[in-house]
Design goal:
The chain is an alpha+beta fold. Helices cover 36% and strands 14% of the residues. The strands form two sheets. It has a two-stranded parallel ribbon with strand order 1-2. The chain has a two-stranded antiparallel sheet with strand order 3-4. The longest helix is centred in the first third of the chain and has 16 residues, at 12-27.
Length: 118
Amino acid sequence: PAGCLLTVKNYTGDRLNFGLAAEKARAEGFAVEMVIVADDIALPDIAQPRGVAGTLFVHKIAGHLSEAGHDLASVAAAARAAAKDIVSLGISLSSCSIPGQAHEDRFGADDGELGLGI
């Protein structure tokens, strides 16, 4: 009854699909707010940065305010303010593991890769 806050990472597919879900929910009479998180500073001059680890903090702030009884509009406003002020940078110290495929170890003991997503 209080509504739903969608916290969305700034990826085209995520924005599209969550946006469609929000429209469908609103059409059914639900209160829905959407917050876009675009916190990645790996590429400083990019027009639309990705949403990465900073999303966690937006969730925590929104969750705290929601549990404290704040209404959807104020929770969404605080989440948007947090998303605007949060930056993060991804780094990996090992290769990812893809289920069903052999692990490819691309990094040496002293290597890392900057600017990775979640």
